[in-house]
Design a protein that fits this description.
Elements (H helix, E strand, L loop, with lengths): L25 H16 L4 E3 L9 E4 L8 E12 L2 E5 L9 E5 L2 E7 L5 E7 H13 L15
Antiparallel strand pairs: 1-2, 2-3, 3-6, 4-5, 6-7
The protein binds cobalt (II) ion (CO).
Cobalt (II) ion binds next to helix 2.
Length: 151
């Protein structure tokens, strides 16, 4: 387990589309563990693999300080409903924040590090984090979606 360097705005990795994970090996497990370490060290609630320079469809989320930890490999939105707006920031965009509109509820299908398929139904801030992190996998940053600078 190790803390990795978080790439910042201006690094083109953040703007590229990440590739599907096809190998569910020990490297994937190490990457996921490192991503959790990196996220918690930075006091974040989510982190996507492109943010540590890895162009693979992997993200991690924990909005309660590690009590509930989500590892999302090849995540896909199955259903989205409602909207909510709230202030966001991003570990790759230090000093920036702004209000973004996100789905209120999400159903997401994803694999875990072992390749097992899971279905997650999330709402509220967890849904915001899922949406924000999944955007990273397509090179989309929250700053692209900001509707106002403050709430
Ligand atoms: Co982010």
């Amino acid at each position: 387990m190790a803390v990795r360097e978080i790439v910042k705005l201006g690094d083109e990795t953040l703007r590229m589309k990440a590739k599907e994970v096809t190998e569910f090996d020990s490297h994937l497990g190490v990457l996921i563990d490192d991503m959790f370490d990196t996220m918690f060290k930075a006091d974040g609630v989510g982190l996507a693999a492109p943010q540590v320079g890895i162009l693979r469809r992997v993200c991690v989320v924990s909005v309660d300080g590690g009590i509930t930890k989500y590892e999302l490999v090849n995540p896909v939105i199955v259903k989205a409903s409602g909207t909510q707006r709230g202030a966001e920031g991003c570990l790759s965009c230090p000093g920036k924040s702004g209000v973004v509109v996100r789905p209120k509820k999400l159903t997401v299908q994803a694999q875990n590090r072992y390749g097992e398929t899971k279905l997650y139904k999330v709402d509220g801030f967890t849904a915001v984090a899922f949406s924000h992190e999944m955007d990273h996998l397509d090179g989309v940053l929250f700053i692209d979606k900001v509707i106002s600078e403050d709430d």
